[in-house]
């Protein structure tokens, strides 16, 4: 026999059907095809294997010794293919497997409860997370979902979905505010210690504040510049000064008494939050479940 068998699954299924029924006619009826097609399938398989699988007479169809050996292997192989197909169908229907997410350093931590809640419902889900503020490529880096703050380009290789909008506000620790002069208006801010965010390009992000009907950009002399959104929050909690951060990131710390919202009337609209997902013929169930969970969780917190 040849090491390489040039035979289709349909040919093997036809052979197994004939072997089980001992009849080309009954095999054809069971497969919903013609007796001629079944005969051709068996002939192709015998030619590929280089051996006869059946002894044919006018009265009966019986397996040869090689046919009996091949039948056992064929039934095992077909059952394995059916089980594999069922497993793949289940994976498409039910969230199963590992989901790789790349999340913003500060904002991403807010999504931990959402992921934990989802896994309680689907315990066969697992996660691999990265927390950073650099721009990532879901396709080349193998991420299932990349979440980023700000407008994102859509180059045709990704699906981009808006998750929510943010607002930018000023926050400081209670201890810092007790030790410094009272802040009554945006005009008082330049005299305070500023903690600012340094973007991926190295540029310091200026503060923009609402002053009546106008939005002003403040000139600052920061005491601390950080390229990590989570570190920005921690520095404010530790009393380094005032920082401007997104409302959703700040709110848990305000609720816990670690931060105070400074000049709430000076808040300004912030950037949107988007998710990027690599394009595919169909989004995997695991990816869709995580994305829908994040959206629902953020909507509940509005």
Account of the 3D structure:
By secondary structure, the chain is of the alpha/beta class. The chain has three domains: 9-93, Winged helix-like DNA-binding domain superfamily/Winged helix DNA-binding domain (Arc Repressor Mutant, subunit A, Orthogonal Bundle); 97-165 and 272-300, Periplasmic binding protein-like II (D-Maltodextrin-Binding Protein, domain 2), CATH 3.40.190; 166-268, D-Maltodextrin-Binding Protein, domain 2 (3-Layer(aba) Sandwich), CATH 3.40.190. It is built from ten helices and 13 strands. The strands form three sheets. Strands 3, 4, 5, 6, 7, 10, 11, 12 and 13 form a nine-stranded mixed sheet that branches. The protein has a two-stranded antiparallel sheet with strand order 1-2. A hairpin with a 4-residue loop joins strand 1 (54-56) and strand 2. Helix 2 (24-31) crosses helix 3 (35-49). It is rod-shaped and about 105 Å long.
């Amino acid at each position: 026999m040849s090491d390489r068998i040039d035979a289709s699954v349909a040919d093997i299924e036809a052979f197994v059907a004939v072997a089980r029924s001992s009849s080309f006619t009954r095999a054809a009826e069971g497969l919903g095809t013609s007796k001629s097609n079944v005969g051709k399938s068996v002939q192709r398989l015998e030619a590929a294997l280089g051996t006869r699988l059946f002894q044919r007479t006018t009265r009966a169809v019986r397996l040869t010794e090689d046919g009996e050996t091949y039948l056992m292997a064929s039934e095992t192989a077909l059952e394995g293919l059916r089980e594999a197909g069922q497993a793949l169908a289940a994976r498409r229907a039910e969230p199963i497997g590992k989901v790789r997410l790349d999340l913003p350093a500060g904002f991403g931590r807010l999504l931990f409860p959402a992921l934990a809640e989802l896994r309680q419902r689907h315990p066969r889900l697992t996660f691999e997370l990265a927390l950073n503020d650099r721009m990532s490529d879901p396709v080349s880096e193998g991420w299932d979902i990349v979440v980023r703050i700000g407008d994102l380009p859509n180059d045709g290789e990704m699906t981009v979905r808006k998750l929510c909008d943010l607002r930018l506000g000023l926050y400081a620790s209670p201890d810092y505010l007790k030790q410094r002069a009272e802040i009554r208006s945006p005009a008082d801010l330049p005299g305070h210690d500023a903690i600012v965010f340094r973007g991926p390009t190295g540029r310091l992000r200026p503060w923009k504040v609402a002053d009546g009907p106008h939005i002003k950009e403040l000139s600052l002399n920061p005491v601390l510049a950080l390229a990590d959104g989570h570190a920005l929050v921690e520095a404010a909690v530790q009393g380094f000064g005032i920082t401007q951060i997104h409302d959703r990131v700040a709110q848990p710390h305000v609720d816990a008494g670690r931060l105070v919202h400074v000049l709430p009337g000076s808040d300004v609209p912030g950037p949107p939050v988007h998710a990027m997902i690599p394009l595919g013929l169909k989004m995997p169930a695991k990816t869709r479940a995580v994305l829908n969970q994040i959206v629902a969780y953020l909507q509940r917190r509005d």
